[in-house]
């Protein structure tokens, strides 16, 4: 590497060094490298920090749940031994692809090559590693990989298979093995008290999700939710079936007797819709939830809740919201240096600040330096008294409305029975 580039790299790593007086070309490269690091930083905070830690120390909140410690990406002793290509390959292929732990997920089916290089640059930046600058290869692919779709007929074939083989002990055992030992699922999901907590606890997956939804989601989560932190794992059809059968068998579909009146078929979807959106009514769900772009952002989007969740689970979410807190919507309590209490759902966090959205839908930005105490609370922002303020018929109507929503994408129509 030229001396000029080395100096440039060292300067950029220390940020803020005045670039004045530098030759134009160096200035241009510096801008390029800074842009690369900025991009890598955002991706890192979104996809990597929960395991590798906000500053790359290997101490993310999820790290304690892993049998293998996430690499210390900010430790020059560690990164110096790796070439840029080696780091690139580890991110692209995941641990299993480079003879490391399967708990490190593969991101090559989720992120573009250019994005992966930006992560390599950011890792060099975290490690203050001056010797191996990162530049985008000239022929780099900038588009994200194509997300697999559900071809017509695949869903039918799955359903038939699931009906016949879904309870077979061999199938369940193979699915469990793939989930825990082979793919990185267990690194992010808890089952019966063990496993990671980046994604939802799947101990009751069979109660919560329809089998068709699990099958379709795990093949390509990005197709449903482009911004999800779950990468596309790259499961083939057999693997998707086995894992789906295993998960669909977890957790009985519990139906307490006093739920029956709510679950009875024949509610009025039109009235349910009215209640959902009526700002003057007792339900007014759209204050916090949106459906196909209409409504608030405090709670999760419910556009595909009817395709993906079982009716008993949706009912449980309405009657007893605190039973399951949807991932990304746990509420935080902040005490500021000035003595102010703030509560809301955390929507963003980086190493300097936190953004929350409170139950009235207001966005609040807090600098970490201004925070005295911070606590994540296992409570729901969603009111717990709908069972008291709405009649059985009203809840039944809302449930009917939610489960009768047309699938968001045409291919999901195959999931609906
Ligand atoms: C679910 C937890 C988890 C997530 C998310 C995760 N990693 Fe890792 N990562 C690990 C673990 C565990 C290891 C250690 C693997 C080993 O040493 O066997 C690792 C190792 C690595 C390594 C070193 C590989 C080697 O060759 O030793 C790199 C580089 C890396 N991760 C980068 C990333 C990047 C970049 C992201 C985000 C795009 C990311 N990781 C997301 C868990 C995770
Ligand atoms: C890097 C972490 C990570 C890995 C690895 C991972 N997941 Fe997830 N998963 C998540 C997150 C986060 C969500 C929540 C989805 C969202 O709302 O963005 C999720 C959601 C899910 C859901 C529920 C979907 C829904 O509609 O809410 C299922 C089922 C699931 N994952 C199964 C799996 C399986 C099976 C694997 C392995 C093949 C896997 N996950 C690997 C993070 C992960
Ligand atoms: C004050 C805001 C608020 C109101 C009003 C509200 N919710 Fe929620 N809801 C939330 C939040 C926040 C979550 C996520 C946390 C949790 O799981 O409890 C949630 C979660 C849910 C879920 C679970 C989604 C999933 O996929 O896990 C369902 C279903 C739901 N709400 C339905 C409703 C219905 C129906 C109404 C109206 C009767 C309603 N909510 C009113 C805030 C609200």
UniProtKB/TrEMBL annotation:
InterPro entries: Cyt_c-like_dom (IPR009056), Cyt_c-like_dom_sf (IPR036909), Haem-bd_dom_put (IPR013427). Keywords: Heme, Iron, Metal-binding, Signal. Residues 1-21 form the signal peptide. Gene3D superfamilies: Cytochrome c-like domain. PROSITE patterns: CYTC. It comes from the Bacteria. Residues 35-127, 170-251, 267-406 form the Cytochrome c domain. Pfam families: Cytochrom_C, Cytochrome_CBB3. This is Triheme cytochrome c. It comes from Nitrospina watsonii.
